[in-house]
Design brief:
Layout lengths: L1 E2 L6 H6 L19 H11 L3 E6 L4 E6 L4
Antiparallel strand pairs: 1-3, 2-3
Amino acid sequence: MFNAGQPISEVLLRNLCQPFSRGKIKPGQQGLGLGFFIAAKIAKAHSGELAISYNDEATCFTLTIPLG
């Protein structure tokens, strides 16, 4: 998935897969900051990985799970 929205700060990216880690909250925004934490744990439980890469134009989240 590519995100062409606002860049994610380096500090937030380093902690994105930690529980209850959130950036600035906008009005009407909800959540506990557990989504990426849970996704990373699911990936790890299946010998996989959740990777995050970014540049000035986009952020990319890649889930890799080996077959078999």
